[in-house]
Amino acid sequence: MTTSPIQTQLETLQTEAIDAIADSSSLDELEQLRVKYLGKKGQLSQILRGMGKLSPEERPAVGNKANVVKEAVQTNLDRQKDRLQQAAVAAKIAAETLDVTMPGVSRPLGRVHPLNGTVDRVLDIFVGLGYTVATGPQIESDYYNFEALNTPQDHPARDMQDTFYLPDGNLLRTHTSSVQIRYMENNEPPIRIIAPGRVYRRDTVDATHSAVFHQVELLAVDKGLKFTDLKGTIKEFLQRMFGSELPVQFRASYFPFTEPSAEVDVQWKGKWLEVMGCGMVDPNVLKAVGYDPEVYTGFAAGFGVERFAMVLHQIDDIRRLYNSDLRFLRQF
Length: 332
Fold this sequence. Notes:
The protein folds into two domains: 92 residues; 216 residues, Bira Bifunctional Protein, Domain 2 (BirA Bifunctional Protein, domain 2). The protein is built from eleven helices and nine strands. Helix 1 packs parallel to helix 4. The model has no long low-confidence stretch (mean pLDDT 87). By secondary structure, it is α+β, with helices and mostly antiparallel strands.
């Protein structure tokens, strides 16, 4: 039997296609070859258009040959596609492999801000003394910020703290003493808490004052607590904070929520610097939270973190703590 020209073309196409597929190096190139040889307008379709010129006896042999060629080309396309996909996965895995023996990339470490460092140091001391850290909201009601602390609407002590009032009648807390009230409302004595947080007062900013600053307050309530317990606690704290050589003195003072009350000074740069206020919890404050002042007594103290940071690090101006000057911050 003689071979028709179409069969010869089909054999040539098969050989050419298989060689081209074997030489392909990417999935995109492989797809182009599939379209070139097996697409609707590909070479196989163009060759088969000549079957109309064949005799009825020749057509079955040519059709069978076309199917064999198409199957052979498609099989080689599938095999090459699998090989290229596996090679791509292997290359990706190799590229993403982590060499754990390589040295790490060094990144500069951040530094703790002197204010945060001071708060951490204070909390470490008081937690070591058995105190629990307590927190509360910065937006407070008049009741928790003033009234429950023995400071009613007409009390002259309100003039001591120029307050930021909000349109809804609430205010930005002027001290963290409000945290003490909230804690006592939900806990029975004995209690020992330390309350750090940000507070707000309409104060003139200068070297030692700021309208927004940080405060830490401590509170202890139990049976039989005396002013000597308060003095001993404060002296122990200040000695751990600044060292045993720092001179400390107590001065009689006034706060609406403590009675008796005192200011605490430390000697700094040859001068006495006021750093905290303290006193025995006023009986009216204990009554406001449901404690019996005939059974329980307590003491409280509060101080500004900025003042302590200034003493601890010999900083001459409180505003340096807020200027974000890297030349200053890198010293810590």
